[in-house]
Amino acid sequence: MELNQLTIHELQEKMKAGETTSTDIVQSVFRRIDAVEKDVHAYILLTREAALEQAAHADGEIRKGRFQALTGIPIALKDLLCTRGVTTTCASRILHNYVPPYDATVVEKLRAAGAVFTGKTNMDEFAMGSSTETSWFGITRNPWDLERIPGGSSGGSAAAVAADECIAAIGSDTGGSIRQPAALCGVVGMKPTYGRVSRFGLVAFASSLDQIGPFTRDVEDCAILMNVIAGYDPKESTSVPAEVPDYRQYVSRGIDGWTVGIPREYFIEGIDAEVLEAVQRSVKVVEGLGAKCTEISLPHTEYCLAVYYIVAPAEASSNLARYDGVKYGFRSQDGRDLLDMYKKSRSAGFGAEVKRRIMLGTYVLSSGYYDAYYKKASQVRALIKRDFDEAFKSCDVILTPTTPTPAFRVGEKTDDPMQMYLSDIFTISTNLAGIPGIAVPCGFTRGGLPIGVQFLAGHMGEAKLMQIAGAYEKSAHLEKRRPNL
Amino acid sequence: MEYEPVIGLEIHAQLLTDAKIFCGCSTKFGGSPNSHTCQICLGMPGVLPVLNRKVVEYTIRMGLATHCRINEECNFARKNYFYPDLPKGYQISQYAYPLAEHGYVDIELETGRKRIGITRIHMEEDAGKLLHDEHNPSSYVDLNRTGVPLIEIVSEPDIRSAEEASDYLRRLHEILVYLEICDGNMEEGSFRCDANVSIRPKGQDAFGTRTELKNMNSFRNVQRALEYEIKRQQYILEGGHEVVQETRLWDDTAGVTHSMRSKEEAHDYRYFPDPDLVTVALSREWVEEILKDQPELPLEKRERFVRDYQIPAYDAGVLTTSRALADYYEEVVRLTGQPKTASNWVMGEILRFLNEEKKDIAACPITPQALADMILLIEAGTISGKIAKEVIEEMYKTGKPAKAIIAEKGLVQITDEAALARVVSEVMAANPNQLSQYRGGKEKLFGYFVGQVMKATQGKANPQLINDLLKKMLAG
Fold this sequence. Notes:
The complex is a heterodimer of chains A (485) and B (476).
Chain A: H1 8-16, H2 22-40, E1 43-46, H3 48-63, E2 74-78, H4 105-112, E3 116-121, H5 155-162, E4 168-173, H6 179-185, E5 188-191, E6 211-216, H7 219-229, E7 259-263, H8 273-288, E8 292-296, H9 304-319, H10 338-349, H11 352-365, H12 371-394, E9 397-401, H13 417-422, H14 428-433, E10 437-444, E11 450-456, H15 462-475
Parallel strand pairs in A: 2-3, 2-4, 7-8, 7-9
Antiparallel strand pairs in A: 1-3, 4-6, 5-6, 5-10, 9-11, 10-11
Chain B: E1 3-14, H1 53-65, E2 69-70, E3 73-74, E4 77-80, E5 90-93, E6 100-109, E7 112-125, E8 129-132, E9 139-142, E10 149-155, H2 162-178, E11 191-201, E12 211-216, H3 219-238, E13 246-251, E14 256-262, E15 272-273, E16 280-281, H4 284-292, H5 298-309, H6 313-319, H7 323-336, H8 339-356, H9 368-379, H10 385-398, H11 402-409, H12 417-430, H13 432-439, H14 446-456, H15 463-474
Parallel strand pairs in B: 12-13
Antiparallel strand pairs in B: 1-10, 1-11, 2-6, 3-16, 4-5, 4-15, 6-7, 7-10, 8-9, 11-12, 13-14
Helix pairs in contact in B: 2-3, 5-6, 7-8, 7-9, 9-10, 12-14, 12-15, 14-15
């Protein structure tokens, strides 16, 4: 195995044993990038020189016997995490040249833990999409089948991990944007509890739903990254002031005696037969681990998509108002006056999907419509949250499919927003409820496409997710495959 | 037909916190453009607001001072609109759930006291400023003011004239400054006022169509603009036309209001709860703590001065126009035990000196102790009240104590009876005609002799003693 194919904990062992160096690892990653990036296009920006400098620094630290949680580990960052002095575009023309003057809290924490940054990964523009096809910088392809999408919006991060173009990556999840691409690319992806990981420096799409999380090769790596990025941040008002447990301890604890809820609303018609089969096999694995699987109901599930497509665009319409051509980013040069400059800058600066959601959001917040849409949606959102509260009274975790289908073809759904939105149907409720979820690989279709199972836990239940995902991963005995690039 | 104006005022007051409402930047006025900014108040992508606790405290203070209900919970909302001085494209304000509601302020009119209702007081962030280049077709943005904390105080439509509006405004201004939560500087924009005005036939309950007035940056302009607008609306109605609902700008130079935007052009602000901020929960304990710590307010102070010091309401009004002036006065009273005399000196001489130089009591070179010492010298008979006016002027100019000035200039009152009797004799000898006229029954000449004695002693003679001596000696 090449260094770039290993996990964080495997590389840490090797570095500690003096068998390899961070520089070797980073070079191995960039060799892979040089070989496959033209096909995959996981990155918007590569920061090779800085990465090599960081690796050299890490090697110096290691020689002095100083190991931190991520010393020398190459990590890719979704291009909506602010990086001081390095462009942060959100895959949008309107921010194509934007260089933040500060680091996101998560970036600061990763840096302080010794991580090496390989670059900024591709995504759907402003995280609005499920296929990484709305990026101003071009599409990302699924490493398992280049004719297919990697999922989205964090498709670049998922593809980079799957294609061994980094060791782990950071993404963001507003309605499934970590878990859906993780499932479609065959890697582990976690969306933590709302408020568990600081949003400071994450360019906002929908503030009440956005959450940062990791993409990794296994659950142990997920725990390692969560140990670093989780925690209270006084710069964020919605940050949860709670201690961070050592998530790594939970990975091998097992789930004997647990109750796992299987929500009947998540096994709907239209779900792909092979996905269904794989998820049902997962249920058997979980039962084999000593857990009791029981059918439960989340009665307001059918409203999730509708609520989401009111709340998220409403918040987005306001969050994206600052991109007006005045202060930074793209400005149209042929505006006749202020209003015309605004219109032309925003018309040319944003892509179609972003504009669609800004218009939708503007509409639902308009005077006379607010009560019927935004207010009503907020009320239903409270009911959705209550469904989960009820469910977690009797279950430790919930098991569902992550996506209704495996990765679809490039261009297959770009003309049909509704079909595209439906690909997040199993992941959206988690964000509306603010609870944590994790997508874990659970097999392949006969055509060789990855499938992911999703575990959900109650508020601040990340440790439980590490526990079940770790136990599941160990016992599922999945065939070890790598994409053939 | 007789019309009655209906006026409601919206006041924006900048709070005197050191830091901005959602970041740590300085709120100081007048730094070089964009020097008091950071990624948060600049609205850079990815930043988040964190509420400054001091802003909440100050708003509670104002709420309590205006008898509002302090809501146990309130939250922030986004007011969405595009303008280059608003870097996020929305202003963080409060909408459905303001901090304080249902209060009032009493104003003093010639006809008596009147209560003006306060609908709500809420917290929000200020916007920046545009600077226009006269020689270039370009504008610049200064975001130093962006994120400076404001409270908006909305009155009920209880105001019925421009004078009432002006008085209400002064009362609110006074309270804010008393609470030391706003410097009240209207020119620098730390105290701003918008007005909603309509008129209706007297006796009618329903409101007429209102206009909103903006850009009135002094008390006088608020009154002038309202007077103009009331007349303008009256003229329209009397001509058989209808008032158009719109926003109008006051033009100070021309003395008129201009249409700025019509109702149709009004923004739809698309308010919704700001998801980046959590609900502000106010504990009863905290509010009570703040209440305990509230300073005495102008109206209470005024009433206490009249009651305790037995001074006229007018004096009490003048002496309580600022907390510092009232404190100054009270200190003089404490040191002299003479409230009315103290009031006369503070209102008469001290305020006159300060007003001539447009200075504040804080800049007064005469300390309360120095003034008290001088008052006590009058009481002790060391100087006369007349001489004291000369002394105090010198005290103000030089900052020297009264005693030093009296000694330097030899202003000690002559109370030596024998010495004064000699002067009286000399005056009588020098004015034989007047003396015989007086003795012949022309008693009006008594004053003449007093004047002559004063002149001979350069005003230093003890007036009572002169009186007594003259009466005795003139009688022969």
